[in-house]
């Protein structure tokens, strides 16, 4: 019986209907009556009156409202990237298709319209960045070319929206990519593959150190007298799982329970009952035969335990309490992606006797289940994560070729059939890649669309080989997945924070268009509210705007068309007019973190890797020989003489701030040694009367410049051509030197009016800002280049045979031979695509991934064989 009156029950039921309809609109289609019948058994919460909560509230309602408020405020997003292959070599191209969805139902997201895809080096430095416009349906695609000179190693590919930054980088899409030294060093050698060890030694450093072993009591704590399950996770210094075995010991070094050993990627579990007065540790034997001792968490004299067992179609949950005072009833709350069900409270005793619940999986969507035990004061006492997998994948993609074997340069017709779990056709969009099977299977347990959306996107930290848990589900993989959640369980919210008060307002906006955002700070990095900003765009259009920072010192300029890179100069001032401020643009999420692990066995690659490297080198050699424009890296200039000359400027001839290295003007003004330049007056005013033939007219900040017998000069700021409006905003204290090119000197810049080059101190890589009381460390000036939307390149698709004329004689593609980020099934759930085989023979694998409009992920593969040319 419910501990609620009829009116309260009606109100409570309506509340649950609203919550369910808010997050699961399919309930609307079922009808309210049917939903009420379905929900009624879940509300059998006898004993709620024992919980201490505000008047007329019950605990489940309060907790559900907090969760609903959290998701309504945070509106979390997820993004997944389908790649053409799991590993790459230097000189190759990463092709990707992005799926942006809401984190609750995994439906195509309409919140953010801009996606950032970044590639970070092994030291987590930014290598490449793509700014992508998200199309309707949450889809976008792009590519990243890996330069021949790129060092081999483990790189990090990540994707995120500005809105996702509110929850931190733990919930970005992140994938570690192995980039092997595949590009040949000498293309004139006919494709001879140099040894792997010819790459720079600094490219890979062996990471050594003690294996890290951590222990995680199920539910959270070890409690005296309560049976405990302890998960453990062993990681090598590289971050990968380490094989271990061990024995639990007590304070007297006596064995406790049976010996244990890791089962999968350094993870496993053992059971024992903690005793009073004991401090436990584990003696662990590592793979090299050495041993080490690792402590377990301290044993608590009293508290709760929570034990979850996967019984197939349900979870059997057991709770206990050990203590000196009666604990009162305990409430079990379950949550899967914001979908909450509260189960009937159970009366706990203080002698450790168990109470239990039987939780059916069919009541939840697939994903990570969050079990939380609350005491009578509605305080969380124990937590446990488990995985809900309701049957096989709901979306099935079958790929079938029209033949099993093909010849070189032969047309392939492949059909795709997409159905749901019951075999009914599904209309959806998906992406597909066809790659050499050896390359396509080098990392068979890499992240895929199902493992990402259902598992890794809701866990913090690196998950090794996530595809293992989904590719071929067995009792063994289910046990390994449970070990993972026992040891690496982490979720989007923590009850303590959720119950403490309202969710903080988001710091980052959900972007609908390109914008230049940032903050203006003072000397101590404190934000300056109401700072005056001057915005001067010199490319691709000319415009001047003004703005004011908000109460947090933040600013935002919106309205870029995204067709080209925008060059913007920002000048910040205090309300008093002072320029001792710093303008800090928001250039994306930070790239901090420990270095990524090195490549495994780089000096002695496995046969599969060695074969892949051979194919990759052959492909690159052919590309560079047959497509010189595409492979152009260096240009040799003939009949050009470079003569030495006296260093006329304080700016070195090869300084990176020069538009054309080596070109130095005859007229140089050294601002660094000019006392008047430290007064902060405008640059043009300082130049007036100091350079023969230079005429300055007007008053700051609307001054114009002419060079006698030449006209209006070009203006170059730290190697970037700008307008005079930009120079008018620069304070002389921020300038190191100015060079004036007159007459024939300026011809190299393509103008007839001369040129004036300004070199700022802060653009000098060796510049160190002054410190100490009264020093002016910033003029509040900043030049920013804001990239436009990236236009994805078209994947090369040659055609052979009649009636095609001038078909290429050779096709160097030996790895990925087909890539299509956007295929659409018809009303029968069918689609077909064609492509041609290339010069390479062997087995090729087609891989398709997609997502339905209702958020169901799917993946399918198919294979073909290409016979060698006779």
Explain what this protein looks like in three dimensions.
This protein has 870 residues and is mostly beta strands. Among the domains are: 77-182, Sandwich (Immunoglobulin-like), CATH 2.60.40; 515-629 and 648-766 and 777-788, TonB-dependent receptor, plug domain (Ferric Hydroxamate Uptake Protein, Chain A, domain 1), CATH 2.170.130.10. Helix content is 13%, strand content 34%. Strands 25, 26, 27, 28, 43, 44, 45 and 46 form an 8-stranded mixed β-sheet that branches. A hairpin with a 2-residue loop joins β38 and β39.
What is the CATH homology-level superfamily of the domain at 515-629 and 648-766 and 777-788? Answer: TonB-dependent receptor, plug domain
| Rg, Å, rounded | 32 Å
- Major β-sheet, in short? 8 strands, mixed
Low-confidence stretches: 1-56, 185-208, 628-647, 771-778
State the share of residues found in helices, binned by percent. 10-25%
Instruction: Please write the CATH class name of the domain at 515-629 and 648-766 and 777-788.
Output: Mainly Beta
Name the average pLDDT: 82
CATH topology of the domain at 515-629 and 648-766 and 777-788: Ferric Hydroxamate Uptake Protein, Chain A, domain 1
Domain TonB-dependent receptor plug: 681-753
InterPro entries: CarboxyPept-like_regulatory, Plug_dom, Plug_dom_sf
Protein name: TonB-dependent receptor plug domain-containing protein
Region (Disordered): 577-601
Key terms:
Plug_dom, 13 helices, Ferric Hydroxamate Uptake Protein, Chain A, domain 1, Immunoglobulin-like, 870 residues, 5-stranded mixed beta sheet, disordered N terminus
């Amino acid at each position: 019986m419910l501990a609620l009156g009829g009116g309260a029950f009606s109100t409570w039921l309506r509340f649950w209907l609203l919550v369910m309809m808010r997050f699961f609109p399919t309930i609307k289609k079922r009808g309210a009556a049917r939903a009420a019948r379905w929900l009624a058994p879940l509300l059998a919460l006898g004993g709620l009156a024992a919980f201490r909560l505000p008047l007329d509230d019950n605990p489940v309602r309060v907790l559900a409202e907090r969760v609903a408020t959290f998701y309504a405020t945070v509106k979390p997003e997820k993004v997944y990237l389908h790649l053409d292959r799991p590993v790459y070599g230097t000189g190759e191209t990463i092709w990707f298709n992005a799926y942006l969805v809401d984190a609750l139902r995994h439906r195509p997201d309409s919140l953010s319209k801009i996606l950032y895809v970044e590639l970070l080096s092994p030291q987590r430095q930014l290598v490449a960045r793509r700014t992508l416009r998200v199309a309707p349906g949450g889809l976008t695609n792009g590519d990243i070319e890996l330069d021949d000179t790129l060092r081999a190693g483990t790189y990090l590919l990540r994707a995120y929206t500005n809105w996702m930054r509110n929850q931190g980088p733990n919930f970005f899409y992140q994938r570690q990519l192995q980039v092997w030294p595949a590009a040949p060093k000498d293309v004139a050698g006919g494709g001879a593959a140099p040894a792997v060890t010819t790459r720079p030694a600094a490219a890979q450093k062996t990471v050594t150190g003690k294996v890290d072993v951590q222990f995680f009591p199920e539910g959270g704590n070890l409690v005296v007298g309560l049976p405990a399950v302890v998960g453990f996770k062993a990681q090598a210094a590289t971050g990968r799982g380490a094989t271990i075995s061990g024995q639990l010991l007590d304070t007297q070094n006596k064995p406790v329970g049976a010996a244990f050993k890791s089962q999968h990627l350094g993870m496993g579990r053992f059971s024992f009952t903690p005793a009073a007065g004991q401090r436990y540790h584990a003696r662990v034997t590592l793979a090299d035969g050495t041993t080490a001792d690792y402590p377990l968490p301290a044993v608590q004299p009293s508290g709760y335990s929570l034990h979850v067992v996967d019984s197939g179609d349900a979870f059997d949950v057991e709770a206990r309490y050990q203590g000196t005072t009666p604990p009162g009833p305990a409430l079990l709350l379950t949550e899967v992606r914001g979908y909450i069900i509260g189960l009937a409270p159970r009366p706990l005793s203080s002698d450790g006797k168990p109470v239990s619940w039987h939780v059916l999986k069919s009541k939840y969507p697939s994903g990570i289940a969050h079990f939380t035990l609350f005491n009578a004061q509605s305080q969380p006492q124990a937590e446990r994560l488990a995985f809900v997998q309701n049957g096989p994948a709901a979306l099935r993609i079958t790929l079938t070729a029209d033949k099993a074997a093909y010849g070189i340069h032969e047309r392939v017709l492949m059909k795709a059939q997409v159905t749901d779990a019951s075999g009914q056709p599904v209309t959806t969009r998906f992406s597909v890649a066809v790659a050499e099977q050896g390359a396509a299977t080098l990392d068979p347990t890499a992240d895929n669309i199902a493992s990402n959306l259902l598992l890794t996107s809701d866990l913090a930290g690196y998950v090794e080989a996530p595809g293992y848990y989904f590719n071929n589900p067995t009792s063994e993989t289910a046990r390994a997945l449970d070990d993972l959640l026992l040891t690496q369980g982490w979720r989007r919210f923590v009850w303590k924070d959720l119950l403490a008060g309202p969710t903080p307002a988001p710091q980052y906006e959900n972007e609908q268009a390109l914008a230049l955002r940032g903050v203006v700070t003072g000397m101590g990095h404190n934000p300056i509210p109401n700072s005056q900003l001057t915005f001067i765009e010199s490319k691709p259009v000319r415009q001047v705007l003004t703005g004011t920072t908000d109460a947090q010192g933040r600013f935002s300029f919106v309205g870029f068309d995204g067709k080209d890179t925008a060059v913007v100069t920002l000048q910040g001032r205090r309300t008093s007019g002072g320029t001792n401020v710093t303008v800090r643009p928001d250039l994306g999420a930070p790239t901090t973190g420990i270095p990524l692990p090195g490549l495994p066995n780089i000096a002695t690659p496995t046969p599969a890797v060695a074969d892949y490297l051979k194919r990759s080198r052959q492909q690159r050699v052919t590309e560079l020989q047959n497509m010189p424009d595409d492979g152009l890296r260096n240009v040799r200039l003939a009949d050009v003489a470079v003569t030495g000359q006296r260093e006329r400027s304080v700016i070195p001839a090869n300084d990176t701030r020069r538009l054309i290295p080596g070109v130095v003007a005859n007229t140089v003004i050294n601002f660094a040694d000019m006392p008047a330049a430290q007064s902060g007056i405008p640059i043009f005013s300082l130049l007036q009367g100091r350079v023969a033939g230079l005429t300055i007219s007007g008053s700051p900040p609307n001054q114009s410049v002419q060079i006698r017998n030449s006209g209006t000069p070009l203006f170059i700021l730290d190697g970037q051509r700008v307008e005079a409006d930009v120079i008018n905003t620069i304070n002389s204290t921020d300038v190191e030197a100015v060079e004036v090119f007159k007459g024939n000197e300026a011809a190299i810049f393509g103008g007839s009016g001369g040129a004036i080059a300004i070199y700022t101190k802060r653009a000098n890589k060796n510049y160190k800002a002054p410190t100490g009381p009264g020093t002016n460390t910033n003029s509040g000036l900043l030049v920013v280049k804001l990239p436009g939307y990236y236009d994805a390149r078209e994947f090369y698709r040659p055609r052979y045979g009649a009636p095609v004329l001038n078909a290429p004689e050779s096709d160097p593609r030996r790895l990925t031979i087909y890539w299509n980020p956007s295929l659409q099934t018809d009303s029968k759930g069918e689609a077909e695509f064609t492509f041609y085989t290339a010069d390479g023979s062997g087995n090729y694998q087609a891989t398709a991934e997609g997502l339905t409009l209702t958020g169901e992920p799917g993946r399918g593969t198919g294979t073909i064989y290409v016979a060698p040319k006779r």
